[in-house]
Amino acid sequence: MSDLPPAWWRDAVIYQIYPRSFADANGDGIGDLPGIRSRLPYLRDLGVDAVWLSPFYLSPQADAGYDVADYRTVDPIFGTVEDARGLVDDAHDVGVRVIVDLVPNHSSDQHVWFQQALAEGPGSPLRERYHFRDGRGDLPPNDWPSIFGGPAWTQVPDGQWYLHLFAPEQPDFNWDHPAVADEFRTILRFWLDLGVDGFRIDVAHGLVKEAGLPDIGADTSWHLLDVGESPCFDRPGVHEIYRGWRRILDEYPGERIAVAEAWAPTLARVADYVRPDELHQAFNFSYMSTAWQVEAQREVIDASLAAMHAVGAPTTWTLSNHDVVRHTNRLMQENQGEVAGRRPTEVDAEAGLRRARAASLLLLALPGSAYLYQGEELGLPEVVDLPASVRQDPAFHRAAGQDGYRDGCRVPIPWSGTAAPYGFGPGSSWLPQPSSWASLSVAAQDGVPGSTLTMYRDALALRRKVLAAGDALTWQDAPGGVLAFERGASFRCLVNMGDGPVTLDAPGELLIASGPVAIENGIATIPPDTASWWSL
Ligand code: GLC
Ligand code: CA
């Protein structure tokens, strides 16, 4: 890949694949690596630069693979290490890079280290690779809550407790232990040697805990996505870990990257993760948490660009991922700015799709790197009516759990056909697909003018051609409710976020729009919730 331009990641479009829901090759109802491999031509034609694969490692699947039992083995439900290698090689052959998910904050409780720690008993050095403590009488060692509900501590039969910021099946590693750091350096090299182009770092802000594991205090209502100061998140010590990882990444040719899932109290604190000697990118959750409203959008776009510019990193933009309500629904809901833990609600599907398309076209016009989540290019809605019996999010059945509604964005992709599983695989699908999804399938939208898939393909192709490099953006005056900016000398983006149509002088040639923009005698009429790109 040496002939590719340098710094490919600074403006890359990176497509998140949730392996269990993308494509199922063997018919067991769960997507797998051979399934992804067979769909690479789709990703090439979509025009993405890279894919990020959620975890496919050996795992009891207590949290859909974010509970890893062996970091160097592929879970048999997803395939083999050879399948992973073949997928990476084939992806490179079609010009798509591959980023894998690394889960360093916690392992599975079935990981051999945790099993050894349990077997050895209190006082054993093998317990020090996790956080084992004696309780306070009958109570856990401190007052930390688990993000998935209940206390962050579980007692084992010999009386000690272990820490798990997530589910009890996900014990937190003790990153002060040199063996943990060594192990992860080896894991990084294992996947880099296999050829991956980078890592998405799960819970990147969580690895280091405040010494002594102090109580949070009276108010323990914080959660992962709403972190103020807390003794378990965004501690200064995490940055040393990432400096070490950056040195490893830089040893490999081809600009291997890492992107942090780091929820921090301010954008400046997020930017700390992407200083020149640390990771390359961090997800912009501030943007994801912003309402569909001109002033709010302008403010967060400016603040994001400024914070990342200050450290020389590109800004990233995301609207959907496997943890939040799909933006087809979310941007229509009350509290649009609360991205997680909210019960998704039914919205007017047509209006939701119109707004989501506009939001996506805006996102793709912004300077920096765009993260897309599988299915958004089809305009898939959140599935809001999954029966409790099929739900698998580990927090669903835990009262006060933050994330219990994450299954609705994880329903398998419709590829073709008129009935479920819509070409997802030869069998069924692990979550049921709505009967209305036939018209949203890839086959139904392929080549159809005006379809959401066509809009994404066209926008991704145009993006390479017409968008200036760099992070400069100039806001333009525009009628109320309209967001307007230019990049370079010849590109303008106009987004009508208001309730009614707006008319204005057409600024040039219309390149693409998310809805029907009319131009007559040099006057453009832009419908509500519509984004448009213009060549000046
Ligand atoms: C991250 C993942 C989420 C997972 C959690 C625990 O937030 O995105 O899916 O449940 O970490 O690993
Ligand atoms: Ca399968």
Outline the structure in words.
The chain is of the alpha/beta class and 536 residues long. The chain has helices at 33-38, 40-46, 81-93, 112-120, 178-194, 238-251, 267-271, 285-288, 294-309, 327-330, 349-365, 442-445, 452-466, and strands at 13-17, 50-53, 57-58, 70-74, 97-102, 132-133, 153-155, 161-163, 198-201, 257-260, 281-282, 316-318, 369-373, 474-475, 482-487, 491-496, 502-505, 509-513, 518-520, 523-526, 530-535. The strands form five sheets. Strands 11-10-9-5-2-1-13-12 form an eight-stranded parallel β-sheet. A five-stranded antiparallel β-sheet has the order 14-15-16-21-18. A hairpin with a 3-residue loop joins β15 (482-487) and β16 (491-496). α11 (349-365) packs parallel to α13 (452-466). Calcium ion is lined by residues 24-26, 28, 30, 32.
Task: Please outline what is shown here.
The protein is of the alpha/beta class and 536 residues long. 24% of the residues lie in helices and 16% in strands.
How far do the termini sit from each other? 34 Å
Major sheet strand order:
11-10-9-5-2-1-13-12
Number of helices: 13
Give the averaged pLDDT, no decimals.
94
Strand content: 15-25%
What's the shape? Answer: globular
Ligands bound to this protein structure: alpha-D-glucopyranose, calcium ion
Any chance you could write out the topology, listing elements then pairs?
Layout: E1 13-17, H1 33-38, H2 40-46, E2 50-53, E3 57-58, E4 70-74, H3 81-93, E5 97-102, H4 112-120, E6 132-133, E7 153-155, E8 161-163, H5 178-194, E9 198-201, H6 238-251, E10 257-260, H7 267-271, E11 281-282, H8 285-288, H9 294-309, E12 316-318, H10 327-330, H11 349-365, E13 369-373, H12 442-445, H13 452-466, E14 474-475, E15 482-487, E16 491-496, E17 502-505, E18 509-513, E19 518-520, E20 523-526, E21 530-535
Parallel strand pairs: 1-2, 1-13, 2-5, 5-9, 9-10, 10-11, 12-13
Antiparallel strand pairs: 3-4, 6-8, 7-8, 14-15, 15-16, 16-21, 17-20, 18-21, 19-20
Helix pairs in contact: 5-6, 11-13
Alpha-D-glucopyranose binds at residues 63, 66, 103, 166, 202-203, 261, 322-323.
